[in-house]
Known about the structure:
A hairpin with a 5-residue loop joins strand 18 and strand 19. This protein folds into three domains: 79 residues, conserved putative lor/sdh protein from methanococcus maripaludis s2 fold (Beta Barrel), CATH 2.40.420.20; 105 residues, Efflux pump adaptor protein, beta barrel domain (Elongation Factor Tu (Ef-tu), domain 3, Beta Barrel), CATH 2.40.30; 139 residues, CATH 2.40.50.100. The strands form five sheets. It has a six-stranded antiparallel barrel with strand order 3-12-15-14-13-16. Strands 2, 17, 18, 19 and 22 form a five-stranded antiparallel sheet that branches. By secondary structure, it is α+β, with helices and mostly antiparallel strands. 28% of the residues lie in helices and 36% in strands.
Amino acid sequence: MKLCDALPLRLRDTLVLILAATLAALFSGCSKGDQKPPPPAPIEIKAVAAQAKDAPLYVTGIGHVVPMRTVTVRAQITGYLKSIHFEEGALVKEGDRLFTIDPAPFEARVKNADATLKKDRATAEQAGRDFKRYDELLTRKAVSVDDMEQRRTMFEQATQQALADEASLRDAKINLSYCFIDSPVTGATSYQNVKTGNLVTANQDQLTTINQVQPILVQFAIPEKDLPHVRKFFGKGNDLPVTVKPSSSAKGTADLFVETGKLTVVNNTVDTKTGMILLQAEFPNNDLMLWPGQFVDARLALTVEPGTVMIPTQAVASRQEGQLAFVIKGDNTIELRSVQIGREIGNEVTIVSGLKDGEMVATTGQLKLLPGTPVKIVDK
């Protein structure tokens, strides 16, 4: 008799149920182990296409604004300042009246010089008539040669005195004209350093300073490594455009204005202490947004390189092995590709090698991406 036949009926049924449950559990576990795990959900990223376009070659530097000309206005005569004809800091045009020095003493000197000239001219004319008469008398031997020579000398002395008087009159008139000081240049005036009623001294007192601001100049420094590029394109019969804007160090002013001018001068030496070379550009400054002494960021455009592949700067990751781009393949998975970048242009970089026009690259989520990672491109 078998052991299972000897067991009571109820106990035997219980053991059968336990055995069946155990076998079912074992088979169920084996069945789950044979199933493949579901694929990972794609990671949402933003992406852009690499584009081949015109890439300008820029050289940048920090500079400051300098006036085209600076003229210091001084008195050329000594006298009392009678009146001022401009407001401090005002814009004046060339030829505008600035100051008047009391002209009365100089008008008197002109009148005195004019009277002296007229008197000496009359004396010279009389001496000329006497000389002519003595010359005729000499032909008739009515006077001696010595008398005739004396009359000649007197005539010549009177003539030269009249010429000296003419020079004195011109000098007096010139000094009178110095009483009226006009602007020698169109520009912006400084403070009035001397007020009316003060005695000004010739060639000493600085009355005001005028800066020519239309056009105006910007001088900016670039590294010497960029000098070969500048020398290659400057002076070839084409104007190289320069754009300037407020210095980035001036917070809140970076977008106030952008002015465009042209490069005019490359300095004749590199500063051996800093390794920088100074460039100068001229700007029309029609809106007077550039002002002497102002600091600006300058950008010189040398040329344009067509068909250059470019991508946003944030699409490039720097790793120990170099620069990488996360390229999105046709099956929406990631490929890590080594790229060689060129220069930065605004918010983009040029690609020397590693990418082709039209290839999609990820611009966000790079820390989550590995080769083969599935992705989903989203707009937001």
